[in-house]
Amino acid sequence: MAIDPSLIDENGFVKSTAYTPEQLAAMRQEKAVADLESMGGVGRGVYYGIDSMQGNLFNAAGQLLEPFAPGMANAAYKAGLRNQQEAQRYIAPSDIMTTDQIDGLGTGLSYVSRKVGENLPNMAVTIPAAIAARYGM
Length: 137
Description:
The chain is mainly α. The chain contains 3 helices and no strands.
């Protein structure tokens, strides 16, 4: 179902109430998917990688804090879970997430671009650290 652009306000919501709630929900879902698809595999991967890495760091902090400050550890675990859930927003229906889904060159390239994007945030941290370690900085 195509959305008439004149019916969309500046926040992406439909102005008209001529649609049923189910139709409005379907249109919002279509817009969200279209927005995700327009980011490209690498872009979605970068955002996924950032949120995923933050979630992992919060979980690691929770592990370290648990013996000494259980309340703070619980807060860190909750923050980590929230970040992991936010990362899921950047998975588009067309994304190839496992090697089992690869069935040709196109899907293979899609998988690689997604994985490169997911790992760029890690590389941004580890490459300078490796250079600093190598040259004694």
